[in-house]
């Protein structure tokens, strides 16, 4: 067992506890002790993953004179922000502060304390919950379906409760020293609009017509100040959604920002774009997820209950995501038909994913009267399937749905 005793100074590491964990625990205990005015003791650290940028762990509150919960989650950022790039700690700290100030059922863990100087967050522990990814890669199709619908409803609720709170978020960021911020997707999306035509012409021999280019550039309106703006975690991949007894809760707000809600709602059309867990949905699932999301946002934006308006804006977001994913995935896909991520069991081939995205876009562009996009999508699908050769040409379903599909 690892214990922190700030009254006697920082505790030295033992032979089994990594130094980064020791430091995170010491800093968390010192922060909580300053906050409450008496010693708080933490114990039994449990690694929850984290990344090269941060240490994330669960710790038991061993000495608890203040009614603190039995355990807490600690996230310690190891590095300062890269000059010229968004500071992920500050975005996450501001996001957690915004959610903690909300009344009622919060969409994320409550922020217990934070220390900007040491780049430390102490958060509510939501328990040993599974993630949406666990459900999608499990064997229970019914559970996976329920969790997808719960996720979509939670996403809509997140948008609804944060609509109109952009100035609050901006103020929280300014207190942390952030003078300006933007959707981290925006620059890459604009780059895709500018450079993808030359890229697909050179690498696939596909010509982007002026009509298709105009239709794509029109979607850039989603990257500006629309009236449908709300908070977005930006990275809502399945691993970042906890399935708790109180519904799906969002975690990881390193890219948290305000943007047009359609860019998140389009995840129902382009399944988790940019995420390693980007497999196909079973028939009817995207429509059911969109209906669940819409039921939460319509009280805030009643005009999104108009099918034509919703469909047009959703198609804009879908088109923008497909162009962006093509810019990101095509070069490495053509190099060696690489996986999107490192884990072969949770990551499809990049070419298969792109072919799937363009196939869906071809269908939806016809329905949405985007003739240039429909023509381009057909050409892209043909070119990508040629590159796939004799291998599979259809993106498989998420594993949870495959056995049911066979049955």
Describe this protein's structure:
Strands 1-2-3-5-4 form a five-stranded antiparallel beta sheet, sandwiched between helices. The chain has two domains: 6-124, Phosphorylase Kinase, domain 1; 130-400, Alpha-Beta Complex (Aminoglycoside 3'-phosphotransferase, Chain: A, domain 2), CATH 3.90.1200. A hairpin with a 2-residue loop joins strand 8 (241-244) and strand 9 (247-250). It has helices spanning 19-36, 88-100, 132-136, 141-162, 166-175, 184-204, 210-217, 262-265, 285-297, 307-336, 350-367, 371-388, 399-406, and strands at 41-47, 54-63, 71-77, 111-115, 120-124, 130-131, 229-232, 241-244, 247-250, 257-260. The protein has 407 residues and is of the alpha+beta class.
């Amino acid at each position: 067992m690892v214990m922190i005793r700030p009254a006697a100074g920082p505790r030295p590491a033992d032979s089994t506890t990594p130094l980064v964990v020791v430091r995170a625990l010491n800093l968390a205990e010192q922060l909580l002790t300053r906050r409450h005015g008496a010693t708080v003791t933490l114990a039994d650290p449990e690694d929850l993953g984290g990344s090269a940028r941060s240490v994330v762990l669960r710790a038991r509150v061993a000495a608890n004179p203040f009614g603190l919960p039995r355990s807490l989650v600690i996230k310690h950022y190891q590095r300062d922000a890269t000059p010229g790039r968004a500071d992920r700690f500050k975005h996450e700290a501001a996001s957690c502060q915004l959610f903690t100030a909300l009344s009622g059922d919060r969409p994320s863990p409550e922020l217990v304390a934070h220390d900007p100087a040491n780049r430390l967050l102490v958060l509510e522990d939501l328990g040993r919950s599974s993630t949406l990814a666990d459900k999608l890669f499990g064997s229970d199709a019914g559970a996976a379906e329920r969790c997808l619908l719960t996720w979509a409803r939670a996403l809509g609720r997140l948008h609804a409760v944060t609509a109109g709170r952009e100035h609050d978020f901006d103020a929280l960021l300014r207190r942390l020293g952030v003078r300006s911020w933007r959707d981290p997707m925006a620059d890459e999306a604009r780059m895709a609009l500018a450079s993808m035509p030359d890229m697909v012409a050179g690498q696939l021999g596909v010509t982007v017509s002026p009509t298709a280019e105009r239709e794509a550039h029109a979607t850039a309106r989603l990257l500006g100040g629309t009236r449908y703006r709300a908070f977005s975690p930006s990275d809502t991949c399945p691993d970042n959604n906890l399935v708790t007894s109180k519904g799906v809760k969002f975690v990881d707000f390193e890219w948290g920002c305000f943007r047009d809600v359609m860019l998140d709602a389009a995840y129902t059309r382009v399944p988790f774009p940019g995420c390693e867990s980007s497999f196909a949905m079973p028939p009817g699932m995207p429509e059911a997820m969109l209906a669940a999301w819409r039921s939460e946002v319509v009280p805030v934006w009643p005009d999104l209950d108009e099918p034509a308006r919703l469909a047009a804006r959703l198609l804009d977001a879908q088109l923008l995501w497909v162009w962006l994913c093509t810019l990101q995935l095509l070069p490495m896909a053509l190099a060696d038909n690489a996986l999107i991520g490192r884990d072969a069991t949770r990551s499809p081939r990049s070419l298969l994913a792109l072919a799937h995205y363009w196939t869906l876009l071809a269908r939806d562009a016809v329905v949405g009267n985007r003739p240039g996009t429909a023509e381009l999508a057909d050409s892209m699908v043909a070119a990508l399937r040629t590159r796939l050769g004799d291998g599979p040409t259809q993106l498989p379903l998420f594993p949870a749905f495959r056995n049911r599909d066979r049955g």
